Amino acid sequence: MKALVLTGVKQLKVEDIPVPKTKDNEVLIHSYYAGICGTDFGLYNGLPGSAPAVPPIVLGHEAAGVVAKVGKNVKGFKKGDRVTMDPNCYCGHCRYCHIGIPEMCDNLSAVGVTRNGGLEQYFTAPATNVYHVPANVPLKDAATTEPVSCALHGVKLIHTSPYQRALVIGDGFEGLLFCQILKAYGVRSVTLVGRHDDKLAEEKKAVGADRVINATKEKIPAKYDVTVDAVGLPQTQEAAVNATVKGAQVILFGVGKPNQHFSMNTYKVYQKELTVHGSFINPNAFVDSLALLSTGKVKVAPIVKNVLKLDEVADVLGGKDKRVGKCVVSTK
Q1: Would the pTM of this model clear 0.85, i.e. be above it?
Q2: Residue 189 has pLDDT above 80, yes or no
Q3: Closest CA to 108 of 128, 88, 123, 85
Q4: Options 3.90.550.10, 3.10.450.50, 3.90.180.10, 3.40.50.20; CATH of 2-145+282-330
Q5: Contact, 27 vs 17, CB < 8 A?
Q6: Which CATH superfamily is domain 158-278 in?
Q7: Do 197 and 214 meet the contact criterion of CB atoms below 8 Å apart?
Q8: Which among 71, 196, 224, 327 has the fewest CB atoms less than 10 Å away?
Q9: How many CB atoms lie within 10 A of CB 220?
Q10: Euclidean distance between CA atoms 89 and 17, whole angstroms
Q11: Is the separation of the CB atoms in 240 and 263 below 8 Å?
């Protein structure tokens, strides 16, 4: 079968490799679509994702397809089922798994990071990580369930209420998901921050944002009850904290560099009684994410901009292909 193999830092190659054997507790999935995200850019450049990736490895932690085979101990799945998978595998026996925060697992592994993922024609995943895709959700949309679940986990960390005004800094794919999920969870209004007027106008309509701010032209006011940094730069993290009112909640979602720091006025954190949440991966969020996709409360089709072939991925991750917007790869 064909697979896109990360063989080293900034080295990707389409290779013919064997179809993986299916263990007793695993599902073999015929991959139809696999998403490309910021984590993949990082892994390509030698940075860690949810866990370190050791080449040679097949990336693709956002994937959907059709069941090709099930292990002998697997129940609830059969050949031909339309499925997606949560890539993150928790050990279940470390301190963090036992206290209910499995995303902090000391032994975290992940499909498409520490074991081969969806950027190949067939891949395996533990049956416990596989989910049926609702009949009305196309597999291309289902391949985005993992990024939806990551944004949803961030929202689940906070308390949402109808009086709240929310601010999302960053109009990449995850920022656009945050806009829709915050609206689905009942906040009063959502303001989206980006840097290009024409792009923001299109995104405002696509995700139902109530207002947009071009950060190159307009100062962000300090009037928000919920703020999200979906970029991960020191200046956007600072902006998320500074845009708050008293009693506000801040979600730091964008991934910064491992040695990165930002400045924060600790007196204002104290005086405003701010709550600042880091948000890491996506525990226990796939069922709700698939429901959001199925009900149309989150619409991804208007914001998935590109469908790639396997042999086009290296140019995108390497920056030679400068197309803008969310990419999914057709792998079937």
Answers
A1: yes
A2: yes
A3: 88
A4: 3.90.180.10
A5: no
A6: NAD(P)-binding Rossmann-like Domain (3.40.50.720)
A7: yes
A8: 196
A9: 18
A10: 24
A11: no
Residues 166 and 280: their CA atoms lie apart, in Å, by: 20
Peptide bond into 234 cis (omega under 30): no
3-state secondary structure of 306: strand
Q: Is the dihedral of CA 48, 49, 52, 57 positive or negative?
A: negative
Exposed/middle/buried for residue 256 (C-beta within 10 Å: 0-12, 13-18, 19+): middle
User: How many angstroms separate the CA atoms of 7 and 56, rounded?
Assistant: 4
pLDDT of residue 47: 83
User: How is the chain split into domains, by residue range?
Assistant: 2-145+282-330, 158-278
Burial of 320 (0-12, 13-18, 19+ CB in 10 A): exposed
Q: How far is CA 188 from CA 110, 117, 181, 191, in A?
A: 36, 39, 12, 10
Mean pLDDT of 101-112: 97
CA atoms within 13 A on the CB side of 18: 3
In the block, residue with structure tokens 């054997």: 21
Question: Beta strands 2-8 and 11-16: pairing type?
Answer: antiparallel
* Calculated CA dihedral for residues 314, 39, 206, 131, nearest 10 degrees: 100
